[in-house]
Write a structure and sequence with these properties.
Layout lengths: L6 E2 L10 H12 L10 H21 L6 E4 L2 H18 L5 E5 L4 H12 L3 E5 L9 H7 L6 E3 L13 H11 L4 E5 L9 H4 L5 E5 L10 E5 L14 H4 L7 H39 L3 E3 L11 E6 L4 H10 L2 E2 L15 H6 L3 H4 L2 E5 L6 H20 L1
Parallel strand pairs: 1-11, 3-4, 3-5, 5-6, 6-7
Antiparallel strand pairs: 2-8, 7-8, 9-10, 10-12
The structure holds pyridoxal-5'-phosphate.
The site of pyridoxal-5'-phosphate has 15 residues, from α3.
Length: about 400
């Protein structure tokens, strides 16, 4: 049986492993690899590979290698950023006040909720209809009490890019003691973070959104920051994250970042053109299709978020999957069939529209044929579902 051609348009959920990354990781294991904390030659090799990977991650982020903490992914990095700084503030005898945008990924939102349960004062910052954080509300909320401000670099559901430099500016002016955390998991394949996140205290990354392995991430934590470890043990990662490091994962992440940095401009231009082609094709062929993010708003090159009235998201995604079109409902972590995601709710997208919310996310390996197939198949699937 010949398998159906597949158009993988779900890079924001997880991107296919890049062949160069797989090769680099296989090479790590091709020779004896010790524990990086050991003393014999295989351990020394592990340590060298780990530190080389750390140097590359630091260079990608424009930071000092000592700031880079390897984690098990974006979720752990966010937990460490939020709860690690809250615990450090509480231990230092102060109160902990956390401000976070209303459209943060659950890794950040739920960490803030956990911090609130532990006594921190956590407040959400509203966003506008495009999902952009309200800078006036931020300015009003900033005070000498604030410990941490969390605003993601770009949103996972819509791809909307946040005004991070303005956020940093406002915090430095009104609450210089506060740390700024940005979840850059979605932005990393597309934006120059050394520039975009300059001045940010805490930055998180996840390898699998970049064509690296699942299960490896990073939190870069600036030198002026007090951060209490969440995981206790052998004191690896400068006492910030205990546990034997995943050397092959770190090498995979560093390899993916090297490729991203070398190809960023050309990949972004190519992918944005294909995304626009997909958008035009679908809007022209699906009656009532609505682009969720208003025109003129900065969106990551691979993201296309649409609301298709008259279809249910779950039915649509299953039917598309059967036809070889892989997309998702927005957040890969969202559960609850007909619930509006918190992102769409914060943007004020009405329930009826949000029921047909679908995210197409293109990436480094998306070809013209993937887009052409989607432009043909998606309208036909939507029409069939509307008839039933
Ligand atoms: N932050 C954002 C913006 C994400 O999109 C994701 C993954 O969907 C995460 C954090 C979590 O990353 P990981 O899957 O590596 O735990």
């Amino acid at each position: 049986m010949r398998s159906r051609p597949t158009s993988y348009l779900d890079h924001a959920a997880t991107a296919p492993l890049r062949p160069e990354v797989a090769a680099a990781m296989a090479e790590v294991h091709a020779e004896p690899l010790g524990n990086p904390t050991g003393t014999h030659p295989p351990a020394q090799r592990a340590r060298r590979l780990l530190e080389e990977a750390r140097d590359e991650v630091a260079a990608f982020l424009g930071r000092d290698p000592g700031e880079v903490v390897f984690t098990s992914g974006g979720t752990e990095a966010a937990n460490l950023a939020v709860l690690g700084s809250v615990e450090a503030a509480v231990r230092a005898g102060g109160e902990a006040v956390v401000l976070c945008s209303a459209v943060e990924h659950p890794a950040v939102r739920e960490s803030a909720r956990a911090a609130a349960c532990a006594g921190a004062d956590c407040r959400e910052l509203p966003v506008d209809a495009a999902g952009i954080v309200d800078l006036n509300a931020l300015a009003r909320a900033l005070s000498s009490r604030v410990t941490l401000v969390a605003v993601m670099a770009a949103n996972n559901e819509t791809g909307v890019v946040q005004p991070l430099p303005d956020v940093v500016d406002a915090v430095r002016r009104r609450a210089p003691q506060a740390a700024v955390f940005t979840d850059a998991v979605q932005a990393a394949p597309w934006l120059d973070l050394a520039d975009r996140a300059a001045g940010v205290d805490l930055v998180s990354l996840s390898a699998h959104k970049l064509g690296g392995p699942v299960g490896t991430g990073v939190l870069a934590a600036g030198p002026r920051l007090a951060l209490r470890a969440r995981q206790h043990g052998g004191g690896q990662e400068r006492e910030r994250r205990s546990g034997t490091q995943d050397v092959a994962g770190a090498v995979g992440l560093a390899t993916a970042l090297r490729l991203v940095a070398a190809q960023r401009v050309s990949t972004a231009a190519r992918v944005a053109a294909r995304r626009d082609q997909l958008c035009e094709g679908l809007l022209a062929r699906i009656e009532g299709a609505h682009r969720t993010v208003p025109p003129g708003v900065a969106v990551l090159p691979g993201h296309l978020h649409l609301c298709l009235a008259g279809v249910s998201r779950e039915e649509l995604l299953v039917a598309l999957g059967r036809e070889g079109i892989c997309a998702s409902g927005g957040s890969s972590c969202a559960s609850g069939a007909l619930e509006r995601s918190h992102v769409l709710a914060a943007m004020g997208v009405e329930r009826g529209l949000a029921e047909g919310a679908v995210r197409f996310s293109l990436g480094y390996d998306t070809g013209e044929e993937d887009v052409a197939r989607a432009v043909e198949v998606v309208p036909a699937v939507v029409a069939a579902l509307r008839r039933t």
